[in-house]
């Protein structure tokens, strides 16, 4: 049984919203806070506000409150301060529009609300400009510092690895924007604490839920502008756009403006999700909703996490793709070498069949069976080696028997034998024909004699013992054919 968490993000994603959704899904906030307290960071606390979000969807609004040296709340709006909340609504009092007047104080509040993510690095003692001011008790931290803090903690190894991976994606994107190595990317004093709580808290919550896989919906790009030390820039901000390279994106919902995907939210999505798109097939077991602090007008400002289970198929079932193309303007003689080319590109199998096409034209159907990781390479080979204008791709599953290669001795020499099967199904023993043919030619005997001798020798093999060894790769493929 595989446990899946699906991030449903119709209005984007921010770190606090994801963490709120996981709490609403049933993860104890005390368990999250206890896990975070093993880290050497202080001056913060979680506040859960079940009534603080949009009443149309219910759910949980989660805030990270930053404290002064005497344990007093220094006010909301600290941290990444995305358009989703963390005081953004409190500072602006209205929705984030394309254009509005900015006096000096408003500009300062807007920078303060967005934190380090819309600042820039001056280098040396200049530090990060455009983020929050210093906060008592919170040291300056780079990605190298945060990674060391996590790797030196007693958190479960899987939690540490996933959290470091998320931070590495965020640091790489920020570093590319500001011309810094990832290790040197600075997280301003409070933003570091805020991001650590969001990232580590979310990863820890997924661990507590025993989630095996994370999938995510396509993400809306947002609309409008934010102000930073560089001036007014469009959303998504540059670091977010870099994080979203290769990810399905779309427009904001009608009537919604503002920053919808924050850098921290984008890093969590791309750092944790193995696939983007519609929900995978699964049995739904729970739903949690995390709310942003800003109203988005016609639609709720929420992230939903769908928790489900996928029952594993038969022991030998695996995902494959069938690639195919119809060709009627290419000589069959030129198609002859194509099968070897496709197998060399990693196809599990390949074949060519005669077909009749439109206007009674004779043609050829070129097909290849491929594993998911070889789909692109094999499709490119079909396009490169034939005259077709396109390649069809159909997802399929196949049930395969365990298999192995063994070697037997015959009066003519050694022959490899392919064994396959399992208890309850039976066992197959198939001598490699190329080996039999080579020995027959070398000894001057009919190939059927060598093949018969190999079959007799193969009958003495113990298939279960042979199948316990890994399958050696075949030439031009991976041995899984």
How are strands sequenced across the largest beta sheet? 13-8-1-15-14
What is the distance, rounded to the nearest whole angstrom, between the alpha carbons of the first and last residues?
26 Å
Task: Write down how many β-strands occur, each being a DSSP E stretch of 2 or more residues.
Answer: 22
- Give the low-pLDDT segments: 74-136, 470-481
Biggest sheet character: 5 strands, mixed
Total helices: the number is 15
Mean pLDDT rating: 80
Find the structural class using helix and strand composition: alpha+beta
Q: Give the helix level as a range of percent.
A: 25-40%
Question: Which radius of gyration do the C-alpha atoms yield?
Answer: 29 Å
* Shape category: elongated
What is the domain total for the residues? 3
Describe the structure.
- With 481 residues, this protein is an alpha+beta fold.
- It has three domains: 2-310, no CATH class; 317-399, 2-Layer Sandwich (Alpha-Beta Plaits); 403-467, Ubiquitin-like (UB roll) (Roll), CATH 3.10.20.
- It is built from 15 helices and 22 strands.
- The chain has helices spanning 15-24, 29-36, 88-92, 104-114, 143-151, 157-178, 189-208, 238-243, 263-272, 332-335, 338-344, 375-385, 433-443, 447-458, 463-467, and strands at residues 2-8, 44-49, 61-66, 120-121, 128-129, 141-142, 186-187, 213-216, 219-220, 225-228, 231-234, 249-250, 275-276, 283-291, 302-310, 317-327, 349-356, 362-370, 392-399, 403-410, 413-422, 426-431.
- The strands form eight sheets. Strands 13-8-1-15-14 form a five-stranded mixed sheet. Strands 17-18-16-19 form a four-stranded antiparallel sheet, covered by helices on one side.
- Strand 21 (413-422) and strand 22 form a beta hairpin.
- Helix 2 (29-36) crosses helix 7, helix 5 packs antiparallel against helix 6 (157-178) and helix 11 packs antiparallel against helix 12.
- It is elongated.
């Amino acid at each position: 049984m595989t446990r899946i968490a699906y991030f449903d993000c119709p209005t984007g994603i921010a770190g606090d919203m994801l963490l709120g959704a996981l709490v609403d899904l049933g993860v104890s906030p005390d368990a999250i806070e206890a896990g975070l307290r093993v880290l050497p960071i202080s001056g913060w606390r979680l506040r859960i506000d079940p009534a603080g979000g949009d009443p149309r969807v219910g759910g949980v609004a989660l805030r990270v409150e930053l404290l002064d040296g005497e344990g007093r709340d220094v006010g909301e709006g600290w941290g990444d301060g995305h358009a989703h909340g963390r005081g953004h609504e409190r500072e602006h009092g209205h929705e984030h529009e394309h254009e509005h007047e900015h006096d000096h104080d408003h500009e300062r509040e807007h920078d303060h609300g967005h934190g380090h993510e819309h600042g820039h690095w001056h280098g040396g003692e200049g530090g990060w400009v455009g983020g929050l001011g210093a906060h008592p008790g919170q040291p300056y931290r780079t990605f190298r510092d945060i990674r060391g803090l996590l790797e030196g903690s007693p958190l479960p190894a899987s939690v540490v690895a996933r959290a470091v991976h998320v931070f590495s994606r965020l640091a790489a994107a920020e570093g590319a924007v500001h011309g810094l190595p990832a290790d040197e990317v600075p997280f301003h004093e409070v933003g570091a604490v805020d991001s650590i709580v969001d990232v580590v808290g979310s990863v820890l919550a997924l661990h507590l839920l025993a989630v095996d896989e994370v999938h995510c919906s396509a993400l809306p790009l947002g609309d409008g502008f934010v102000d930073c030390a560089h001036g007014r820039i469009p959303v998504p901000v540059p670091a977010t756009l870099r994080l979203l390279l290769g990810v399905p994106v779309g427009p904001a919902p009608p009537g919604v403006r503002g920053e919808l995907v924050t850098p921290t939210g984008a890093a969590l999505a791309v750092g944790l999700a193995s696939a983007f798109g519609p929900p995978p097939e699964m049995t739904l077991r729970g739903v949690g909703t995390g709310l942003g602090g800003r109203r988005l007008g016609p639609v709720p400002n929420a992230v939903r996490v769908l928790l489900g289970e996928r029952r594993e198929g038969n022991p030998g079932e695996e995902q494959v793709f069938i690639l195919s193309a119809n060709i009627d303007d290419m000589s069959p003689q030129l198609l002859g070498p194509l099968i070897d080319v496709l197998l060399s590109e990693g196809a599990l199998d390949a074949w060519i069949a005669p077909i009749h096409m439109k206007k009674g034209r004779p043609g050829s159907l070129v097909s290849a069976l491929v594993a998911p990781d070889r789909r692109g390479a094999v499709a490119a080979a079909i396009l490169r080696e034939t005259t077709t204008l396109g390649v069809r791709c159909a997802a399929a599953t196949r049930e395969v028997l365990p298999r192995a290669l063994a070697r037997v001795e015959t009066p003519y020499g050694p022959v490899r034998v392919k064994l396959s099967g399992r208890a309850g199904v039976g066992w197959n023993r198939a001598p490699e024909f190329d080996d039999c043919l080579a020995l027959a030619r070398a000894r001057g005997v009919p190939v059927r004699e060598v093949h018969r001798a190999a079959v007799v020798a193969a009958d003495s093999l113990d298939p279960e013992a042979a199948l316990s060894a890994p399958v050696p790769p075949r030439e031009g493929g991976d041995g899984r054919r």
